[in-house]
Amino acid sequence: MIRRFIRVNERIHTPQVRLIGPDANQLGVVAIQKALELADQYELDLVEVVPNADPPVCRIIDFSKFKYDEEKKEREAKKHQKQGKLKEIRLKPNIDDHDYETKLKQVISFLKKKDKVKINLFFRGRQMEHLDLGRKVLDRFILDLANDGQVEKLPSLDGRIMYFVIAPK
After folding, report:
1. Is 71 helix (H, G, I), strand (E, B) or coil?
2. Are 48 and 22 in contact (CB under 8 A)?
3. Which CATH superfamily is domain 9-79 in?
4. Contact indicator for 22, 42 with CB cutoff of 8 Å
5. Full-prediction pTM beyond 0.70?
6. How far apart are CA 102 and CA 90, in angstroms?
7. Looking at residue 76, what is its pLDDT?
8. Domain-by-domain residue ranges, the chain?
9. How far apart are CA 35 and CA 41, in angstroms?
10. How far is 121 from 142, CA to CA, in rounded Å?
11. Which CA distances in Å does 60 have to 17, 31, 66, 89, 129?
12. Residue 16: which residues within 8 A CB-CB, separation 6 or more?
């Protein structure tokens, strides 16, 4: 949560403020003492809502309700943010059919949770001479995942690892 200091009542030190009443109507630019008196009349707080303006904008509202509404807006904004994670799956070029199906189901479940997936294919020893076998496995993955995701980074070789990244549709 973003914590910012909000000045209230006597903590507002500017000589004049642009005042907004409790029923959201503009009361114009007034002296700070007059604004504080008006807030007392309504038995509410004088809250600085736009401190950077010239003169600062203040509202006559209940401060605890204002704080609650601000926190509620932040929570709502946080809900709509996507905290996307990058999941990784490790394979070898000589993967068996059942193992392949298991890994495929795992990738599909990650994609349904809106996570990106990096699929790594590791070559060991003499397997480096048969990069085409690894490429076939990755191409098969891409074909099988065409309905669930879209390839974000095409397969490429990085040392002994061939990999690609797939994102949810």
Report:
1. helix
2. no
3. Translation initiation factor 3 (IF-3), N-terminal domain (3.10.20.80)
4. yes
5. no
6. 12
7. 86
8. 9-79, 86-168
9. 10
10. 13
11. 12, 14, 10, 56, 76
12. 29, 30, 31, 32, 55
One-letter identity of residue 84:
G
Q: Give the torsion sign (CA, 129, 132, 136, 138).
A: positive
Torsion of CA 137, 146, 108, 154, to 10 degrees: 60
Q: Taking the domain 86-168, which CATH number applies?
A: 3.30.110.10
Enumerate the β-bridge partners of residue 87: 117
List the chain pLDDT tens, one digit each, 169 residues: 445 678 888 888 888 999 998 888 888 899 989 988 888 898 898 998 888 888 889 999 998 888 898 889 888 888 777 666 889 999 999 999 999 999 999 999 999 988 999 999 999 989 889 889 999 999 998 999 999 889 988 999 999 999 999 998 8
Q: Which two tokens stand for residue 153?
A: 């980074």
| Predicted pLDDT of residue 163 | 92
Structure tokens at 100: 């392949």
Q: Residues 102, 146: contact at Cβ < 8 Å?
A: no
